[in-house]
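agent: user wants the full assembly modeled, not chains individually. Plan: 1) parse entity lines 2) check alphabet per entity 3) run joint structure prediction 4) return tokens. Steps 1-2 passed, two entities, 261 residues total. Proceeding.
--- entities ---
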Amino acid sequence: MPTLSPVVILAFAAVTAHALGSLLGAMLIHPFAYWNAAAVFCFGVMSYIYLFGAVYKSISLRILLDLTRRPARTMEFSDISDRQIPEIFNERSAILIEGGLVDADGDTFVPTPAGQRLAARIARGRRLFAIGDTGLYDFDTLKSK
Amino acid sequence: MAFIVPGERDPVDVFCGVLLLTTAMLFWNVAWSLLAFGFTLTLLTALVQAGQPLTRSEWVRAYMQGSTLEKFARNRLQLLLGTGMAKTDRQNIVATPFGAIVATIVRSTRFLFGIR
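--- prediction returned ---
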């Protein structure tokens, strides 16, 4: 059974909540300042998305959470690099497979046509913002400033 | 801008304008962060750029552009070390009291969002 992507569910929920909220506001408040209400609503939705993304998927925060569960809040670096990061790699590759973006064929992985289309869109977005394709934080640039 | 445009201005309008601007900044920050640091998206682009089927270890190497996951771990840890949420102690990584407070806030936020 095809599943809706979280982005579609969130967009649908936001539009529905906005429409219902605006209707309710128009019925209860006179005069109803729609654009002011829309500004507050959009800020709330964007803050939700921002916070949710940070606490749900951030790898650094995941390492921190794991660290604080350990005795004396201490972990060996090798435990992070040899166990935790490969674990995250496996989880994220599973997301790509479940999302129909990558096919697992035995021991090998290959992008599906949908995966190739998304990768092309990402590449265009990166070119637009002049972003590199490493996915790593660039601390050297920060230090040199 | 609200302060140089002539005419009457309502503090509520100014406040809502600030909210709209902040919303726009958050939106582009999310989009930019996903493109720049998105782990899952970069995994996908690395696989596509390879142009051939890859095994798991080859995929890791392609993602890291020839480097290892250890470099990736160090990179992500740098964020915790740089913000004072963690510190190094020989071969160990230790969460600081500040890091413990942040972790508690993150756990509470995850609970509020219904994230396990």
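agent: reporting back. Chain A has three domains: 1-56, 58-98, 101-145. The two ends of chain A are 51 Å apart (CA to CA).
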